[in-house]
């Protein structure tokens, strides 16, 4: 009985239509397309995680040091609150330098435009760094399905060639190339969908950072042009917990109220008559 069971197990059919078998059927073209897909996928996830880390650093630094910056005695003192190579430090340094240069101009309008333009260029350069790599995600999301479709077309073409050579559309002649074609389509979608989600997610966060930069740049310009007189409203640093002692209700004396035109009465007793 045991011998019959082992003999039956040894005669089990071998699956010849798996992933690796389909890739072998595809040949160099299939392996090349798979390599391109792997490069696209790895690059997409690398950009996603590095950009999330970079964006978190920018937003966290602004929320942590904004109040300390505006409470500083001067802009140069406040700039030290930010990291040396941070986006906010760059914006402050560019604003201070532009303010010093604009003060040398005779025309106040030209001075204002120079300061505004300098801060705008600094803000644009920061956003250009934050947007770096996002075009790659957009390209992957747009082209990965078509790269997979190329493998699909080639697989179907090879299946048709096998049918023509053999003269019959048997499953063993068609399954390999068609399986390879379907696998390439699936891989293309698997690579494209995360890239599209990552692109939209990172772009939405960059729009938030751009709004923060624009607001900070406006406040910075107003502070420079007003020689430090104008500052944004800030939340109080700490709430006072001390309470003032209230006077006892019995000890309070109500002030005497007099009406207009009323004569005041003396509280001293009348002198005795002699």
Structural topology:
Blueprint: H1 2-10, H2 19-70, H3 75-79, H4 87-102, H5 108-130, H6 134-166, H7 171-225
Helix pairs in contact: 2-6, 2-7, 4-5, 4-7, 5-7, 6-7
Short description:
The chain has 274 residues and is mainly alpha-helical.
List the keywords:
mainly alpha; disordered C terminus; 274 residues
What does this structure look like?
The structure is a single chain. The chain is mainly alpha-helical and 274 residues long. It has a domain at 33-151 and 185-225. 70% of the residues lie in helices and 0% in strands. It has helices spanning 2-10, 19-70, 75-79, 87-102, 108-130, 134-166, 171-225. The longest helix is centred in the C-terminal third of the chain and has 55 residues, at 171-225. Residues 5-12 and 240-274 have low confidence and may be disordered.
């Amino acid at each position: 009985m045991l011998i019959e069971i082992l003999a039956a197990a040894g005669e089990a059919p071998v699956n010849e239509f798996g992933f690796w078998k389909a890739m072998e059927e595809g040949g160099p073209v299939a392996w090349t397309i798979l390599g391109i897909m792997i490069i696209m996928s790895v690059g997409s996830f690398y950009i996603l995680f590095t950009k999330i880390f970079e964006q978190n650093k920018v937003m966290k630094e602004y929320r942590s040091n904004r109040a300390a910056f505006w409470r500083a005695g001067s802009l140069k003192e406040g700039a030290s609150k930010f990291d040396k190579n941070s986006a906010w430090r760059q914006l402050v340094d560019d604003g201070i330098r532009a303010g010093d240069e604009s003060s040398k101009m005779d025309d106040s309008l030209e001075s204002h435009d120079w300061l505004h333009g300098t801060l705008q260029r600094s803000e644009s350069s920061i956003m250009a760094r934050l947007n770096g790599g996002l075009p790659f995600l957009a390209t992957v999301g747009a082209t990965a399905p078509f790269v997979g479709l190329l493998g699909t077309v080639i697989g179907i073409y090879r299946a048709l060639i096998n049918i023509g050579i053999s003269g019959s559309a048997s499953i063993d002649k068609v399954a390999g190339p068609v399986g390879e074609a379907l696998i390439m389509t699936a891989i293309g979608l698997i690579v494209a969908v995360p890239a599209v989600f990552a692109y939209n997610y990172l772009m939405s966060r960059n729009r938030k950072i751009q709004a923060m930069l624009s607001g900070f740049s406006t406040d910075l310009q107003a502070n420079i042009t007003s020689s430090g007189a104008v500052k944004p409203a800030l939340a109080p640093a700490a709430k006072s917990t001390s309470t003032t002692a209230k006077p006892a209700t019995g000890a309070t004396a109500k002030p005497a109220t007099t009406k207009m035109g009323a004569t005041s009465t003396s509280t001293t007793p009348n002198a005795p008559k002699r």
